[in-house]
């Protein structure tokens, strides 16, 4: 499997996927930390968190997959949502919480 297939498999077989620097327990950048806090605030039950710092192929591959230059990146039900700035805007408006609830992925 090439890296694009691995990424496609991750985002299509998991409800919520966050490509981030570090882990939810130990984020390695402020933007990744913000993304984790937003998902917690939404009441997301399960997240596949992929630490891009441990795999350079994933780190570069996800940027090509989404055509988005920065990390973190959030996917919900296989669809690219955006980075921490977009997550913050959607959270502040209530749009992200509604999207996750509608998808059956949050309380």
TrEMBL record:
Q: Which UniProt keywords apply?
A: 2Fe-2S, Iron, Iron-sulfur, Metal-binding, Redox-active center
A GO molecular function term, named singly, is: 2 iron, 2 sulfur cluster binding
Supply the CDD domains for this chain. Answer: GRX_PICOT_like
Pfam family of this protein, just one? Glutaredoxin
Question: Which residue intervals define the domain Glutaredoxin in the entry?
Answer: 16-81
Is Metal-binding one of the keywords?
Answer: yes
Binding residues for [2Fe-2S] cluster: 29
The family note in this entry says: Belongs to the glutaredoxin family. Monothiol subfamily.
Q: Spell out the protein name for this chain.
A: Glutaredoxin
Q: What is the native source organism of this protein?
A: Thauera phenylacetica B4P
Recite the lineage of the species: Bacteria, Pseudomonadati, Pseudomonadota, Betaproteobacteria, Rhodocyclales
């Amino acid at each position: 499997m090439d890296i694009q297939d691995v990424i496609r498999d991750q985002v299509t077989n998991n409800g919520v996927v966050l490509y981030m620097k570090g882990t939810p327990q130990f984020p390695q950048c402020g933007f990744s930390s913000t993304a984790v806090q937003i998902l917690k605030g939404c009441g997301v039950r399960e997240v596949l968190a992929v630490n891009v710092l441990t795999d350079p192929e994933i780190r570069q591959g996800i940027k090509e997959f989404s055509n988005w230059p920065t990390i973190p990146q959030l996917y919900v039900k296989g669809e690219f949502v955006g980075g921490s700035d977009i997550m913050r805007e959607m959270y502040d408006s209530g749009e992200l919480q509604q999207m996750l609830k509608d998808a059956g992925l949050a309380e």
